[in-house]
Specification:
The complex is a heterodimer of chains A (573) and B (338). By secondary structure, chain A is mainly α. Chain A is built from 20 helices and 8 strands. Classes of the chains: A mainly alpha (573), B alpha+beta (338).
Chain lengths: 573, 338
């Protein structure tokens, strides 16, 4: 018995006799986790959430969520004697009179920015690699809800200090609420406890920010992680990696050390940002006054797309039978984000319906291999990106001395034509990359060595692919689109459900439309043999030097030794 | 730990035979000196973290919360924040860096293969579960006793109503609140900074003043809210009377002085950017642009309605006064606005 087992044994025995925990340990200490940098994106989100809980708990000890007016009298001299809400005054106290308070505020704000950003990038990784496919659709849905919660957490958080910038954000939120048909005014009165801004809202928002939203996030994150644990992590294609196995490192000790260490790295970087980079300097904005504003005010980045959609929507308002519908606020403020999040949540189910693919996927797609999905993703990203740029049109206009009107008009056109163009371009790029992969499988890797035959002909020597690369390239599958069902049989009897099935088949044709054929097994074998033969003669390092000195012409003298695979393992011979 | 490549042939389900996961031994695997060096590096990182944590406590005591120092590149910054954050950041980062360095240099780096067990119950288990459920459902009589089922559903459907009713007192009903401001006939127009009344001569041609009703401070004192201000704020500008192409009523301005609501008709931001050459007023939030020489009509941006105009006059003491409340609701549109 080693020292380690002796030390832990007592506690393990105690727990096991009460919970059977040793069964869990036996099953899970050796659990294999695949390794890839992109799997750390979700980890960053989790860790920054923990940082948010810790720093937020500290801030809650000092923050006073009250809109009662007080006269400020503290260390920040420029605001002394100014009337402001208690919320803003206590935020100033945290920043200037509590040691470490500013640090915790900045850590909290940086962690929030990183939290949302890492969720977004994590979501893109999951989307573009097809990790949302069966059996992980539910975790995708939880993820979409988590992203929504993260946006609400961020918005409710930066609205709490009641500075000029946050109050302006709330005013906009109230304007959007008012645009809701029938119930808008009631909703606004109930939420704000009367007219805007009232005195009830900050305390209410505080409860939402410190209890409801983090509670929901905590619960959903727990389920999210339990599902990851139970279903086991997906893995990228590679040698020895199949749909039925998982290749990687053990939970204990390697993943424990790496993931645990990474938590401290994330926390450390956020703490350094809090020390070195000012974020949300509320003391410069001043207390909120509903009749004051500063030019160039910008929300946190994750609200930017909504700001952009509000700025870009043309002024459409209807008055029908004495009632007003403000499409210019309703569409960009509620309908559009609603549709965006619905589409995001529905995507796995739509793709599944179109492809009729009910199989389990543990091996990730390379984005290029799922050309249509990737292009749809790029299309959505383009749409989002244009909205985001729209949210910063004033910053762009002042930075580059452009007309803000021109920028807005250009963006209004781009939001319509940009996404489909992005779709087409990205599909061409994906197919081009598929073709290149096919070429590589059939002809090997370009070695950069130019050879002259005795007849005087020049050609480039191709080298065999490494085992890793070959396994990756072989992972693509060509899938036939669904056949279009007949509308009616030869007796003229209509095919029940034929219309839906025809639509599905057409969509499937669109989805799998153009695919580059994979080389057949025979073609690969022939290519391997050819390459093995070729490499026997050219890629021994000693021979290569000889070739370089004796035979290569002036335009062929490139990269002889650089191009050699460093740990080349001959295959197929 | 083995430094050879691990043969995965037994678990490889692919069609292309056995595949090796290539593995190169690390320096620390073959060279005991390199391993010792890695060991020293890892423990040095952990020790730096420990020192940094002590440094945090020292910085907490040493720097008052208001001391400013100048740091290269960053410039003047709060000393306490800088050193506390630096110490905390280094203390955390070094634990992380040490752990990862340890894992990468000294712990096994050979990938292993685990099996994936299929998710889902076997058909037998599913059948057993279905049988249990059916037995339970039959035993309960949920299906065969519709009167129980329906009355239970009725009870459950009604039960959320109290939760909704309870929310009623969150706020008052809208009533006419969004249609009224505290402007009234004879209320003086005062500067929003000094609360001093404004004479015609105080505003030069091309000038702009942000203004509020004279009784605003009293109302704010009384209600303890900023609600009145959020609706009543106005922009008063002066142009040559000949430059006014149109206004919402012929005699609502005095000698080229003209007042509009400062609250944007889009989503309610205060509108602050006035361009005196064009008489355009731009909202910094979403760039709705209003032409104050032309009834406050929208010339650009997402706002769909003109800015409400406040009818003004001059009282017997020569000060600007309102001639009544706005003729229409100010601020963003709402359903009942009409």
């Amino acid at each position: 018995m080693s020292i380690a087992t002796k030390a832990g044994g007592g506690a393990a025995k105690y727990l096991d006799e009460r919970t059977s925990s040793n069964k869990f340990l036996k099953k899970n200490l050796g659990k294999i986790f695949p390794d890839h940098w992109s799997f750390m994106l979700g980890e960053i989100a989790l860790y920054s959430f923990i940082v948010l809980l810790l720093s937020g708990s500290f801030l809650a000890l000092f923050f006073k969520p009250s809109m009662t007016e007080v006269i400020y009298n503290g260390s920040y001299v420029p605001l002394n004697g100014i009337k402001m809400s208690e919320a803003y005054a206590s935020s100033l106290d945290i920043s200037f009179d509590v040691r470490g308070g500013l640090l915790m505020r900045q850590i909290h704000h940086w962690a929030a920015l990183i939290f949302v950003a890492s969720i977004m990038v994590h979501l893109l990784r999951v989307f573009f690699t097809g990790a949302f496919r069966k059996p992980r659709e539910l975790n995708w849905l939880i993820g979409v809800v988590l992203l929504t919660m993260a946006l609400l957490a961020g918005f409710s958080g930066y609205s709490l200090p009641d500075d000029l910038l946050s109050g302006t954000g709330l005013r906009i939120a109230e304007g959007v609420m008012l645009s809701i048909p029938v119930v808008g005014t009631y909703l606004s009165m109930f939420v704000f406890g009367g007219e805007f801004p009232g005195i009830d809202f900050i305390p209410r928002l505080y409860t939402v920010h410190v209890l409801f939203i983090p509670g929901a996030i905590l619960g959903l994150v727990t389920v999210h992680l339990m599902l990851v644990w139970y279903q086991k992590h997906t893995q990228y294609p590679g040698p020895g990696r199949t749909n039925d196995n998982v290749v990687g490192f053990r939970l204990f000790p390697i993943y424990t050390a790496k993931a645990g260490g990474f938590f401290f790295i994330v926390f450390g970087v956020i703490a350094l940002l809090g020390a070195l980079a000012t974020v949300n300097p509320i003391w410069l904005y001043g207390p909120y006054m509903p009749d004051q504003i500063t030019a160039g005010s910008q929300p946190d980045f994750y609200i930017g797309f909504l700001e952009g959609s509000l700025r870009m929507t043309p002024p459409i308002e209807w008055t029908i039978l004495g009632y007003t519908i403000s499409w210019n606020v309703l569409i960009p403020g509620l309908i559009l984000p609603g549709l965006m999040f619905t589409a995001m949540g529905a995507y796995p189910f739509l793709e599944k319906w179109i492809t009729k693919d009910d199989s389990v996927h543990n091996l990730l797609d390379r984005p290029r291999n799922a050309a249509t999905r990737t292009s749809l993703g790029v299309m959505a990203l383009t749409f989002y990106g244009i909205l985001f740029i729209g949210g910063g049109n004033d910053v762009i206009a002042t930075t580059f001395s452009l007309s803000i009107n021109a920028i807005t008009r250009v963006l209004q056109v781009l939001i319509i034509i940009g996404p489909p163009v992005a779709f087409l371009i990205s599909r061409r790029i994906c197919l081009g990359l598929q073709r290149r992969d096919r070429e590589k499988l059939l002809h090997g890797r370009e070695s950069g060595i130019i050879r002259r035959t005795p007849e005087g002909e020049f050609y480039e020597v191709h080298a065999p692919l490494s085992a890793e690369e070959k396994a990756v390239l072989m992972s693509r599958q060509v899938i036939e689109p669904l056949a279009i069902p007949v509308a009616a049989d030869e007796n003229g009897v209509r095919n029940p459900g034929g219309r839906t099935e025809r639509l599905r088949a057409r969509l499937s044709r669109f989805y799998y439309g153009e695919q580059i054929p994979m080389p057949t097994a025979a073609e690969i074998a022939a290519a391997d043999e050819h390459l093995a033969h070729d490499s026997d003669h050219t890629l021994e390092p000693a021979r290569t030097t000889e070739v370089a000195e004796g035979e290569v012409s002036e335009f062929g003298q490139i990269m002889q030794s650089e191009a050699l695979p460093r740990d080349r393992t001959p295959t197929g011979s | 730990m083995s430094t050879d490549s691990k043969d995965l042939a037994t678990t490889d389900g692919g069609a292309h035979g056995s595949v090796d996961i290539p593995h190169k031994p690390r320096r620390a695997d073959t060279d005991i000196k390199a391993a010792r060096r890695a060991e020293r590096q890892v423990s040095a990182l952990f020790l730096i973290s420990a020192l940094s944590t002590i440094g945090f406590v020292v910085a907490y005591v040493a720097f008052p919360s208001d001391e400013i120092i100048t740091v290269p590149v960053i410039g003047p910054t709060n000393a306490s924040n800088f050193f506390l954050g630096l110490a905390l950041g280094v203390a955390l980062f070094c634990i992380g860096a040490g752990a990862i360095h340890w894992a990468k240099k000294l712990m096994p780096d050979v990938e292993e293969v685990g099996a994936r067990t299929p998710i889902g119950a076997t058909p037998d288990e599913t059948a057993a579960a279905a049988e249990l459920f059916e037995e339970g459902a039959d035993a309960s009589g949920f299906v065969s006793r519709p009167i129980i089922r329906r009355s239970l559903l009725t009870a459950l459907v009604l039960l959320p109503i109290p939760a909704v009713v309870l929310l009623r007192d969150l706020g008052p009903l809208p009533g006419t609140k969004l249609r009224e401001t505290i402007w009234a006939d004879g209320v003086r127009v005062v500067s929003d900074v000094s609360y001093l009344p404004i004479r015609l001569s105080d505003i030069p041609v091309g000038g702009m003043v942000s203004a509020v009703p004279e009784n605003l401070p009293e109302v704010e004192e009384e209600t303890g809210t900023l609600n009145a201000r959020a609706k009543a704020a106005v922009i008063v500008v002066r142009m040559l009377p000949s430059e006014i192409r149109s206004q919402q009523n012929d005699d609502w301005s005095v000698d080229g002085v003209i007042a509009y609501s400062k609250i944007c008709t889009h989503v309610g931001c205060p509108i602050g950017l006035y361009e005196q050459q064009t008489h355009h007023l731009l909202c910094p939030c979403h760039q709705s642009t209003f032409d104050l020489a032309d009834s406050g009509n929208v010339v650009f941006g997402p706002a769909a309605r003109q800015l409400p105009q406040l009818a003004i006059a001059v009282d017997e003491d020569g000060y600007l006064v309102a001639r009544g409340d706005f003729a229409e609701p100010v601020g963003p549109s709402f359903w009942e606005r009409g």
